[in-house]
């Protein structure tokens, strides 16, 4: 029988809690659910009012991994959903608004991925994102070098960027923006990626062509497109160990000399939140959002 627990006044079914999802560390489904529940104060504000794509791995990262974009069968009626625009036809997606919905989604064993716009304003981008993806033998340290350049370049346009680990091998930069469409934000991000390649031609590539990427950092600007999603801050990732897409300080980025310095697992997040606070909280302040130049 599937156990039922009460979360914030809602009855949530939790299944197979003893299942080991990450064999290298023995990390279980119960620990995954516990991680999301105890990180909710930091995670939920980044999920709220955003349609969610789930990257699910119910048998662990070494099992079947698949994206779920539409509302999954069996979704409780109290979980918020919203119709969102798609190029082919509108779709109905989950919007994780509260702790009960977060725990229900965690039971599906998932990464959380969100758009760069709110469901109330799908035509207006409120996030700018760069995904810095290293092509071996380039690695996370090289991403940090590119991130520092992008930080300074964005600052000249009055935009403050906040870094987080991808939770895999790269780095993400996020900034709060206002008054722009996804198309305009994508154009701006692409222009900066081209500038970065011109400034650091031996290190940066802005094109997706895989043959160009070995030994360089791909500055992926395309995730600003309205249909694209990016791993949400604090989400677990489907990697061999329970790595988290963790916000980091610019000091940590500048001081990084080894990829392991910016690898954070689920157990690391509570101490970081206690010691550093929620590093991406400024993204949630509408007053901190900057207009794009031009």
TrEMBL record:
Which InterPro entries does the record associate with it?
A: LigD_pol_dom, MtLigD_Pol-like, NHEJ_LigD
The answer to keyword Cell membrane applying to this record is no
Gene3D superfamilies membership: DNA primase, PRIM domain
Instruction: Mention one GO molecular function.
Output: ligase activity
| Superkingdom | Bacteria
The chain positions of domain DNA ligase D polymerase read 28-278
Q: Which UniProt keywords apply?
A: Ligase
Please tell me whether the keyword Ligase is annotated for this protein. yes
Q: Which PANTHER family match?
A: BIFUNCTIONAL NON-HOMOLOGOUS END JOINING PROTEIN LIGD
Q: What is this protein called?
A: ATP-dependent DNA ligase
Q: Which organism is it from?
A: Streptomyces monashensis
